[in-house]
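The data are quoted verbatim here:
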Amino acid sequence: MSKEIFDVILLDMNFSAGLSIWNEGLFWLKRILESDPQAIVVMITAYGDIELAVKAIKEGVADFIHKSWDEEKILSTLLAASQLRQSKLEIKKLKNKQEHLMEESSVGYDLCGCLSPAMLQVMEMVDKVARTDANILILGENGTGKEVLAREIHKKSLRRNEIFVSVDLGSLSGSLFGSEIFGYAKGAFTDARQDKPGRISGCYFRTGTCRN
């Protein structure tokens, strides 16, 4: 595994004849997952002990195959495991992209480390509200740092690992507000030829309902 990357690993639970305790298989399962946390391991065994199966699942097994000559069953299990591997890699890729976007989008928005009584009061308020689900309205003239403060709240919130989405509502007309913010589903109106996700929603709206 230090030289090759495998989509699916078919691992025997017992290497020694006559054993049924799965220690060998579980040992190598841990070693495999240490080497590649995204690895998909399918265990093959002649023993159907439920307790050991539960233990193996907790350790990270994707599926089981009982030793047999049912080639169709083996093939379908391995194909499903291969698809799971691709899904895990795609999720990892998307998470990496999201982390990169978050880093890039936060450049230039760091809050200054002022120690004035006014700023200390502001930062105390940020710490109080950041971990709540309260709706927060920040008021101030242009250039006073409303977005910088909003980003600081986001950094300290429970959603810090999600992307901060900035929307200039002044640039949106009333007729486009709903579709831009919440998105829409294909066929929701005449020109809706395909699903369009909203800027602040992972849903597609059709006549007031949300479809994930």
Residues 8 and 78 are 7 Å apart (CA to CA). The chain is about 40% helix and 10% strand. Residues 202-212 have pLDDT under 50 and may be disordered. Residues 9-102 form a domain with the Rossmann fold fold (CATH 3.40.50.2300).
